[in-house]
Amino acid sequence: MHTPLKAEHQQHGAQWREWLGENVPGSYGDTSAEYSALRQGAGVIDLSVLGKLRITGDDRITYLQGQLSQDILPLQTAGVGAYSCLLKPTGQMLSDMVLFATEDAVIVLTPPHTVQTVRERLEQFVIMEDVEIEDVTHRLAVLHVAGKRANEALASLSLQTQVALWHGQTVLWQEQPLHAVRTDRCGDLGYDLIISVEMAKDLWRGLLDAGVRPVGYEAWNIRRVEAGIPLFGIDMDETTIPLEAGLGERAISFTKGCYTGQEVIHRIYSRGHTNRSLVGLRLNEDVLPSYRAPISTSDREDVGWVTSAVRSLALGMPIALGYLRNEYIAPGTVVTIRQEPSPVPAEVTTLPFVEPSRA
Hints:
Blueprint: H1 6-11, E1 15-19, E2 22-27, H2 31-40, E3 43-46, E4 51-56, H3 60-65, E5 81-87, E6 93-101, E7 106-110, H4 115-124, E8 132-135, E9 140-146, H5 150-155, E10 168-173, E11 176-183, E12 190-196, H6 197-209, E13 213-214, H7 217-226, H8 248-251, H9 262-271, E14 276-283, E15 294-296, E16 304-312, E17 317-325, E18 334-337, E19 344-349
Parallel strand pairs: 3-13
Antiparallel strand pairs: 1-2, 3-9, 4-7, 4-8, 5-6, 6-7, 9-12, 10-11, 11-12, 14-17, 14-19, 15-16, 15-18, 16-17, 18-19
C-alpha cells in the first residue's frame, strides 16, 4: 500500500524509512520539533499504510462479538469504536485492530501486514450469517492527529472533539464522509481521521493550514515508547498473548460470551499472571540495543528480550520496551542487555515512562 500523499510528503522534505514492510516518512528533517508538536502542539501522521476492512450486513455486530476479544455490542450505535485483538485458539494474537461503527458498517484498521490474515480468518466462520467483509485498504486514507492542540485543529474541520476514547463521529467534509475516532496511538490526545484517498490531499492541506505540523514515524515511535504502548509487528507478534503485553484493560472484555481464545485468556486471568510481561527498561549507557537483543541477570542467562529502543526526548536518555520473565519484572531490578560490542546495563521501570496527556 502506497500513501496517496507521497508528493505532499516529498514537498515537506520527507526522509523515507521502512516500517512493517512499508515505506513511510521517517521524519521531515527535525524529529525533535515533530515530537514537540505531538506533545505541546498538534501533529499529523500519515497512517494510510494501515490495512482497512469494511464489514457490512445485519449480523455484523453479533458475528464480530463471537470473534474478537473486546465487547463489540456497543458498536451497534454509530460513532462507537473499540480496540480489540483477533486470537488463535491458543490465546496468541493474530492481530490487533481499531474498530469504528458507522450507520451501515464497521470499519476495521489493522497493521499493514495482517489485513489479509484478519480478512481470511473473519471470513472463515461466516456460514449463514448476513456478513460481508471487504478489503478497502486502497480506497481509504488514515491521518492521525495528536497533541494538546488537536481539538483546535479538528474544530477547524467542524468536528466534535468532546468524545471519549474509542468514540467518534462521521461528518460530511467537502461533501465526502469523514470518520473521526479518538485513539491513543501516541498515548496522548489523538484522533484517527478516515477519508477516501481522493480527499486525502485536501484533508492534509486543511490540517496544515490549521497549524498542524507533519510528523514522521521516528517522532511517533519515540512518543509511543515513552507512553508504553506496544505495536503489533514489533512489540507483539503471533506468539504473544495479549495479557503479556498489558492489553487486558485496553483490548479484552472479561465479561462477554465466547470467542476464539477466550478459554486460555480466562485461565490466565484467573491464575492472576502470565509467565512473562512487557516492561520498561532505562538504559544506563547511550546505546540503543537491537531488536530482540537478549536480556540476562546475574543469576540467569536468558530472562527476556528487547523489542523497541529509542532515545527519549522527554527523559534525555535511552529507554526500551522488552519482555521479562515475571520473576524479574519488579521496578529497580538490574538486568544486562547482551549487545555487541559490549553489554548494556539497564534497570526495570514501570510503564509508562512519561505519563500521557489525554485531556
